[in-house]
Specification:
The chain is mainly alpha-helical. The protein has a domain of about 60 residues: Arc Repressor Mutant, subunit A. It contains five helices and two strands, in the order αααββαα. Strands 1-2 form a two-stranded antiparallel sheet.
């Protein structure tokens, strides 16, 4: 399950992608449009600035904008930045692998095999879709138009 931080991060970055090349967007405008608590959004955007995904401009006409073109920001990268892994169980993580507690040895665990396959399929899909892609509200991604 995606954390609230990850969901807020995605929505804030989607908002900035929608306003790409229109200048900085004020924090309050993002918070209101995306229904994200202002304090939480401040923390999220500060993290995205440190990661280079967002640029912050101070001053009267300041605000936030994407630091990279939307086509260069993949959903998989956003989730990895905010959650640390795409895997649903720790033993299926490629970057943050941990042995599961109270489990079988990994070589004998069929659940791990299933979770590795699921993680790889999900990563392949999330690493194809960028903030530039138009995603419709119709599941399951019936309206995704990939640009990359």
């Amino acid at each position: 399950m995606l954390s609230q931080k990850t969901r807020y991060s995605i929505r804030a970055l989607q908002h900035l992608a929608d306003t790409w090349r229109q200048g900085p967007v004020r924090l309050d405008a993002i918070a209101e449009a995306q229904n994200i608590p202002r304090k939480f959004l401040t923390v999220i955007l500060s993290e995205m600035v440190r990661e280079g995904l967002v640029i912050s401009t101070r001053g009267r006409d300041g605000g936030y904008e994407l630091g990279l073109p939307p086509v260069d920001i993949r959903y998989g990268d956003i989730i990895r930045l905010t959650r640390g892994s795409l895997a649903l169980v720790p033993c299926a993580s490629r970057n943050a692998h941990e042995h599961c507690q109270n489990c079988l040895p990994e070589a004998n665990c069929r659940l791990r095999g299933l979770m590795l396959t699921l993680r790889d399929e999900m990563a392949a899909m999330l690493d194809k879709v960028s903030l530039a892609d138009k995603i419709t509200l119709e599941p399951p991604f019936a309206g995704v138009e990939l640009t990359g």
